[in-house]
Task: inverse folding
């Protein structure tokens, strides 16, 4: 497998932690068929870039705020609940939220949601059945990485604001709930296709 | 002598007529007087004399147009450079907020209204993420708030607005 140098430069631990490319790059936020890590974690790649500001897609039933509690609330509405670790658990699917402190330096992770006021959400990854993780880095390729610290990065290094910080919140969803949510997403997709055609 | 005597006698009998003739032949022509007035009284005006050809007059009159073309070309080059650097820098970023806060993106916004046609053109052709820059510069949102997050409709609304304003 050819090394993805643009990712290895951005994430210093990625090469040593090990990763595999699983899809081609999709392009920027407005490119047709493009999606980002949040959409990838939510398993909804039809709506483009998920982001809770005034330009990205975000589920309409959640108030848009670029905060950790907003992300947690959104994924709670998709059936996930906060859990304490990233280890694989039978009958559960997991996602992890990365965030970085505003100082861009490594900081102790708060133990409650109220303590995240100075933290910015940056990235999400989804656990695969074998216990490894899958991530979409912006508009670049999907990768499977074997550890979560593979994408840890702090800055500012290049002045690019592309640091992911570290994993701060783990969430899990019972497999039956996953099936129900996927059915809901499928029905939503059908509804949107019909309304677009009309 | 006789002639002079005759002329003197005319002057003697018709003094006003003679004075008018003398003034007429001795004074400079109106064209020359105007040229003198231009040189002395109004040096900043364009002097219409034989040394100034028509093409120079036209060139000087349209100098501001030439300047505008230069400014446009400079803004275009600057925009292309910044857009290329910004695209290369934000490839790994999933956060739309971080993309719009990138220093190169802010530099594009600082180019002001002159860059709007290029933003719209690039949005139409390359579909790069120029919504925050357009909103920041123009202070408007041409799309329906219900279309927030629907990138296709947002792009269409911006392009339509640009065409209406004759920017693209």
Result:
């Amino acid at each position: 497998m050819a090394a993805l140098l643009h990712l290895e430069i951005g994430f210093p631990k990625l090469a040593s932690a090990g990763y595999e490319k699983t899809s081609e790059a999709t392009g920027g936020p407005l490119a047709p068929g493009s999606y980002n890590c949040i959409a990838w974690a939510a398993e909804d790649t039809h709506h483009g870039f998920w982001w809770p500001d005034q330009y990205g897609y975000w589920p309409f039933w959640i108030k848009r705020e670029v905060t950790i509690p907003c992300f947690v609330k959104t994924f709670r509405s998709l059936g996930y609940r906060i859990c304490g670790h990233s280890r694989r658990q039978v009958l559960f699917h997991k996602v992890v939220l990365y965030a970085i402190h505003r100082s861009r330096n490594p900081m102790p992770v708060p133990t409650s949601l109220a303590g995240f006021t100075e933290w910015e959400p940056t990235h999400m990854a989804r656990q695969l059945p074998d216990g490894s993780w899958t991530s979409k880095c912006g508009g670049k390729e999907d990768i499977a990485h074997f550890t979560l610290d593979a994408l840890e990065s702090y800055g500012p290094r290049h002045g690019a604001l592309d640091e992911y910080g570290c994993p701060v919140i783990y969430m899990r969803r019972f497999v039956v709930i996953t099936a129900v949510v996927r059915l809901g997403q499928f029905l939503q997709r059908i509804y949107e296709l019909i309304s677009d055609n009309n | 002598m006789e002639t002079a005597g005759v002329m003197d006698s005319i002057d003697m009998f018709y003094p006003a007529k003679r004075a008018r003739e003398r003034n007429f032949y001795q004074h400079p022509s109106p064209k020359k007087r105007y040229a003198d007035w231009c040189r002395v009284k109004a040096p900043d005006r364009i002097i219409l004399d034989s040394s100034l050809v028509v093409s120079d007059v036209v060139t000087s009159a349209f100098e501001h147009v030439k300047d505008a073309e230069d400014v446009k070309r400079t803004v275009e080059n600057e925009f292309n450079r910044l857009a290329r650097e910004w695209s290369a820098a934000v490839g790994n970023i999933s956060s739309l907020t971080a993309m719009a806060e990138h220093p190169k993106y802010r530099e594009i916004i600082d180019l002001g209204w002159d860059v709007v046609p290029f933003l719209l053109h690039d949005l139409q052709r390359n579909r790069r993420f120029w919504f925050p820059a357009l909103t920041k510069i123009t202070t408007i949102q041409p799309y329906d708030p219900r279309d927030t997050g629907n990138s296709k409709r947002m792009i269409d609304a911006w392009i339509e607005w640009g065409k209406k304003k004759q920017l693209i």
In short: The first strand of chain A starts at residue 19 and ends at 21. Chain A touches chain B through 38 residues (CB under 8 Å). The beta strands of chain A are 19-21, 81-83, 92-101, 119-127, 133-136, 142-145, 166-174.
